[in-house]
Amino acid sequence: FQMGTSSDTKVKWSNTKDESPLHRVQISTPFFMSVSEVTQKHYTMVMDETPWLDEPLTKESANIPATYVSHKKATEFCKRLSEKEDRVYRLPTEAEWEYACRSGTLTAFHFGNKPFKLGDYAWYFNNAYKAKEQYPHPWGLKKPNHWMLYDMHGNVGEWTLSDYKAYPYVATDGRNAAKADSPKVVRGGSWHDLPRFGASAHRRTYQSYQKVFDIGLRVVCEVE
Questions:
Q1: How is 67-100 classified by DSSP, letter by letter?
Q2: Contact call for residues 93 and 160 (beta carbons, < 8 A)
Q3: In terms of DSSP bridges, do strands 203-206 and 184-187 run parallel, antiparallel, or are they unpaired?
Q4: What are the residue ranges of helices labelled H in 94-151?
Q5: Residue 192: which of 215, 209, 173, 208 has the closest Cα?
Q6: Residue 71, φ and ψ in degrees, nearest 5
């Protein structure tokens, strides 16, 4: 698939500098991806802890995404889940994440190039933060993308397996996780973000130890 954004793209509401150049990436290994972000219920069952408890800008509910989870904790969640289920779970690479978010499309969002319909598919600045609902929302309340994945364009940002590097950094797969303590790529917008942060190609970076109010995780399961 075509990953990133063309440097020729001129969209006044988007910043494409970090997303260029547009480059071809081959996903060579099949995988399953969870339909939702990991919820508080999922996280507690595996980790037996509630890092979001008594923190600001969140609510406690079984179907709300787990937040205040560092990349290190997200990786540990995947490890424990793998042991529990006897299958290989991990964070998606940013290439896998974008491939799944695009769900076969080439546009800025899976539903088109303009954000006018974003509220149908995502919790973001206009319908959450600006509406005084300043917290993650339960998954499944918005429409999914073409591959039935929910909240890819909003609700909470999601850790990926990938270290941050400028494009293009690999020919295939986008596997780029080299050092545990290096800055990691976060994908997807959140309830706190403007539309451009929810675009399929948008990428940002955080340190692996950071625990952020609007960042959670989504897992993939490797297929033999």
A1: -S--HHHHHHHHHHHHHHHTS-EEPPPHHHHHHH
A2: yes
A3: antiparallel
A4: 94-102, 118-121
A5: 215
A6: -65, -40
> For 102-152, what is each residue's pLDDT tens digit?
999 999 999 999 999 999 999 999 999 999 999 999 999 999 999 999 999
* 12-56 per-position pLDDT tens digit: 555 567 888 888 998 888 999 999 999 999 999 999 999 999 999
Interstrand relation of 215-216 and 157-163 (parallel, antiparallel or unpaired): parallel
pLDDT reported for residue 176? 53
CA atoms 155, 215, 44, 47: torsion sign: positive
Which pLDDT band, with edges at 50, 70 and 90, does 11 fall under?
Answer: low
Task: State the average pLDDT over residues 193-200.
Answer: 95
Cα(42)–Cα(219) distance, rounded to whole angstroms? 11
State which H helix or E strand residue 158 sits in: strand 157-163
CA distance 153 to 150: 8
Q: How far apart are CA 37 and CA 123, in angstroms?
A: 13
With beta carbons less than 8 A apart as the criterion, state whether 185 and 203 touch.
yes
